[in-house]
Write a structure and sequence with these properties.
Layout: H1 2-56, E1 69-73, E2 79-86, E3 89-93, E4 99-101, E5 104-110, E6 116-123, E7 126-133, E8 136-143, E9 149-154, E10 159-162
Antiparallel strand pairs: 1-2, 2-5, 3-4, 5-6, 6-7, 7-8, 8-9, 9-10
């Protein structure tokens, strides 16, 4: 009886080991399939990325850069230069008493203290340039039917206007 018990016990153990090995083999096969499928998917994703990266290295420049404004900022995020189109201001009161200011294209170069040292503007009826510094500023203006002039203004408020005779 003992021999029969040992035979069946050993047989059951070998069957259990066979089942465990079979299950492990199936698990390994499923894992291998999963890894192969994942590798293929990664490769398919990588191919277009490589082609796009290769085409980005061409030396062709964009033909046009378009926008309403362009700002250059320093390391602290402060605007140091800007180019923009300013809308017309029909109710703006001018120093000479007239009202209205036309649409203006403007370039400003700004110091680290947020002061515009260079300001260049152009509009339908003329243009102006202002060069500033700590001691004052120089303004060159030619607009409309008025004679062009150069205005020199010091920090203490003294000014001199130069006009053609």
């Amino acid at each position: 009886m003992r021999a029969i018990y040992n035979f069946f016990t050993n047989h059951l153990r070998s069957c259990d080991m066979f089942l465990i090995k079979t299950r492990l083999n199936l698990l390994n096969m499923k894992t291998q399939r999963f890894i192969i499928v994942l590798t293929v998917i990664n490769f398919l994703i990588l191919i277009p990325t490589l082609f796009r990266a290769n085409s980005a290295t061409t030396s062709e420049a964009a033909p046009i850069l378009r926008g309403r404004a362009l700002e250059l900022v320093d390391d602290h995020g402060q605007v140091r230069a800007e180019i923009k189109v300013l809308p017309a201001q029909p109710t703006f009161k001018m120093p000479d008493g007239t009202t209205g200011f036309p649409e203006t294209e403007q370039l400003r170069l700004i110091t680290s203290k947020n002061g515009p040292n260079v300001k260049l503007g152009t509009m339908e009826d003329g243009a102006g340039l202002v060069l500033g510094g700590e001691s004052g500023y120089v303004q060159l203006l030619s607009r409309g039917t008025n004679l062009p002039f150069i205005k020199l203004v010091t920090k203490d408020g003294r000014e001199r206007v130069i006009k053609p005779e």
